[in-house]
Predict the structure.
Amino acid sequence: MNARAAHRPNANHGELSDAALALVATRFRAMGEPIRLRMLRALERGEQSVSALTEAIGSTQPNISKHLKVLQDVGLVNRRQEGSAAHYSIADPMVFELCDIVCSRLRAQLEEQVEALGRGAGPRRRA
Amino acid sequence: MNARAAHRPNANHGELSDAALALVATRFRAMGEPIRLRMLRALERGEQSVSALTEAIGSTQPNISKHLKVLQDVGLVNRRQEGSAAHYSIADPMVFELCDIVCSRLRAQLEEQVEALGRGAGPRRRA
DNA sequence: TGCATTCATAACTATATAGTTATATCCTCA
DNA sequence: TGAGGATATAACTATATAGTTATGAATGCA
């Protein structure tokens, strides 16, 4: 972090260090795979074992394990070992907050486009 | 939440279609590159031309153009042509909201880790 | 019209990573 | 102790994409 930001430790938008930016980007990238979003959503109703998740998502166990590692590495899920089973759970409910924001904005943007198409060109709407 | 979703309370977390999930993931992935986050931040203070952005970021012009295309394709920036110059601007301030959330959570998690290290294992602190 | 500026794109290389198959490791239980 | 189950990891292939260099296309100006 450079000198300008050093005495403004809460300057979110001001001078974010390259390292901090990389961390933020890594989080976003971790959430940038549909299968990982599905896994996070499956974990929303509670802790799940790898095999349960594998079944729920419909993929192979090694693939699910690898994606779980990505999510754990960025601190989005926790791992708890119990006997020979590993149980994963949401570490940071932030993920749902982020998804909700993106979802509602996407919906708004899509509705704008529908609106624009309805007013302008395209097939006439009945009634 | 809009009226349609109001009486379909599962619309967000329940049954998000695969297509919708892919859209959300694509947005996150678009924000998953440090250079793109830097570009978005540079645009926070207002519209910028490609050459101005290239200078501000410190990369090559083709590289900046390519990243701008990614951001435009997912609807995060707008493009305005003026003469021979192209001016880009933030299309969706949502990006800053998302960054703020991730940043503050990252800070909280890091502070927890520092706390844990201070209390527990690791080299003994003198005095 | 000729030249410079601005931007986009094509072509390429290098790297990251999603998914698969095979296997190693650890645990439980008979 | 041996069999079987649960998970992680190694090795591999295929694909996506970040960055570079070269060039095309549009604009503005002398």
Remarks:
- Residues 33, 35, 59-60, 62-63, 66-67, 70, 83-85 of chain B lie near DNA strand D (CB under 10 Å from a C1').
- The helical segments of chain B are 3-6, 18-30, 34-43, 50-57, 61-73, 94-119.
- The longest strand of chain B covers residues 77-82.
- Chain B has six helices and three strands.
